[in-house]
Amino acid sequence: MRTLFVRGTTDPASGRVSTNTSGFRGTLAGTPLDMLRRMLFKRSPAATLTDTVQPDPTAPLISMRGIDKSFPQGGGQSFVLRRIALDIKPGEFVSIMGPSGAGKSTLLHIMGMHDHAWSGEYQLLGQPIHQLAAKERAAIQKRTIGFVFQAYHLLDDLTVYENIELPLSYRDVRRSERQSIVADALDRFGMVAKKDLYPNQLSGGQQQLVGVARAIVADPAVILADEPTGNLHSSQAQEIMELFTRLNDQGTTIVQVTHSEANAAYGSRVIRLKDGYVQES
Prior knowledge:
Blueprint: E1 9-10, E2 17-18, H1 32-41, E3 62-73, E4 76-88, E5 93-97, H2 104-111, E6 119-124, E7 127-128, H3 134-144, E8 145-149, H4 160-170, H5 175-189, H6 204-216, E9 222-226, H7 234-249, E10 253-257, H8 261-264, E11 269-274, E12 277-280
Parallel strand pairs: 5-10, 5-11, 8-9, 9-10
Antiparallel strand pairs: 1-2, 3-4, 3-6, 6-7, 11-12
Helix pairs in contact: 1-6, 1-7, 4-5, 4-6
């Protein structure tokens, strides 16, 4: 898997990572998606701080076998997912589709380790997630997965700056290095003027921009996106999908849940669910 970000230059005396940020202004200009394009087309120095385990390119990045998810109902069990078996290779752009209630988002949240109440075997980067304790799962999640939510899920009591910084704090990046990386990201996103604002002071497009920045700032092994364009108008949705395509072309593995055939067409493969079962892959 190729990394999302290029390396910055390191000053041999200070050890500080830096990049050339000429041509980018610290003011809010253009639409939120224009800002996102500028960020993705000019990469961050965060790669020098990445500690994600690199997958074997010949092995699946994600492998699931016999995944079941159910809830108690009327003295029995109501299944949301049944006997799920799938593989996702490094560098794929996979769309999970199906009717409402098919289990799409549930499956994505199991992949993202937000949901722990399931049975079966799940391997991520060769690690047996199904055998790990909660603390070990959390450590892998923080270092390997970037999640983009339909409803943004920014932390309301954190500023734009603090929301973007959060994944770096999970990786034990030093404060001075976090400041440099986040300042660089804010400049490239054109969000310097918004850095001290809270999510409720931003438009929907700006909130999703911050959500995507948060997902990619620490260079995850895989981006999981749950209806990432669901709250955006059509032109913004198209631009988001084009940017995901660009990320995927650079080697980033992406798994998205979508109802949109148009969005799925940007990917390389579709996994279809119906009544909790994989119908085709």
